[in-house]
Amino acid sequence: MDDTPTGSVTGTLYLVPVPLGPDEDPLRVLPPATVEATVGLDCFIAEHARSARAVLARLPMRRPLQEITIVELNRNTPEDRLPALLEPLLAGRDAGLLSEAGCPAIADPGAALVALAHRRGIRVVPLVGPSSLLLALMASGMNGQAFSFAGYVPVDAAERTERLRELERRSASTGETVLMIETPYRTQALFDAMLAALAPATRIGVAARLTMAGETTQSRTVAEWRALRPELERTPTVLSLQGERAGSPTRARPKGAREAAPRPAGARPPRPRRGR
């Protein structure tokens, strides 16, 4: 329910993307229109004030950093604190919402604030910038028409295996690509669990250090990954999977059967055999 006073003029909540890596230059990955909208703001809501200041310090802000207000919103922020964060906007002041990396409100506690802003009648404007999830999907070669984000899977080994197989079944049924993230120090464990739990024909994509130096994107079947057994870096990584759909040519082929070799152009098709 909107409890904003009738006739009041509210500020605009800008959703400001930031670089995916802490050492990345925001002017390299943010388009001019996003930079222009950000540098005029003097009020920000961020996961961590210190890292937000580090990003803003690399932008041509129109006010000194010491004159810019930064309040924190993270996973420890109680829900009853959210209305206070919107008070400057209800008073007519524009503000920017920053994530720790990439786009705010995606796998980010800022989503709850955006939802409340809509209920309070505050204008919300998303700005263009890097999204690790979309970049990973683009580079995966998997289905970009239907996809989902599963976030973090369970850490417990048995629960993790069950969840991965559930996601694989859903992907095989719907054809959707499933995207996942994990903290850098647990990425290898998740990747190894995927190789152990998933079917050989399921595809796994690994996208690491996106937009940063040393960026890598690879997409292979589980069988191909098992043969390689790579050691993944402890770095921000997006993992994706796509299960083999029931009825696909590969799935329908009998075990041990080979694909027919392509005929040369102009060759006559073989005569059909009579029933035995």
Description:
Helix 8 (157-174) crosses helix 9. The chain is elongated, with a radius of gyration of 24 Å. It has helices at 26-29, 32-39, 49-56, 82-85, 87-90, 110-119, 132-140, 157-174, 187-197, 222-228, 249-252, and strands at residues 12-16, 43-46, 69-72, 95-98, 123-126, 147-151, 177-181, 203-208, 216-221, 237-242. The longest helix has 18 residues, at 157-174. The chain contains eleven helices and ten strands. The chain is α/β, with parallel strands linked by helices. Strand 6 (147-151), helix 8 and strand 7 (177-181) form a beta-alpha-beta unit. It folds into two domains: 12-126, Tetrapyrrole methylase, N-terminal domain (Cobalt-precorrin-4 Transmethylase, domain 1), CATH 3.40.1010; 132-246, Tetrapyrrole methylase, C-terminal domain (Methyltransferase, Cobalt-precorrin-4 Transmethylase, Domain 2, 2-Layer Sandwich), CATH 3.30.950.10. A five-stranded parallel beta sheet has the order 3-2-4-1-5, sandwiched between helices.
Can I get a quick summary?
The protein is of the alpha/beta class. It contains 11 helices and 10 strands. Strands 3-2-4-1-5 form a 5-stranded parallel β-sheet, sandwiched between helices. Strands 6-7-10-8-9 form a 5-stranded mixed β-sheet, with helices on both faces.
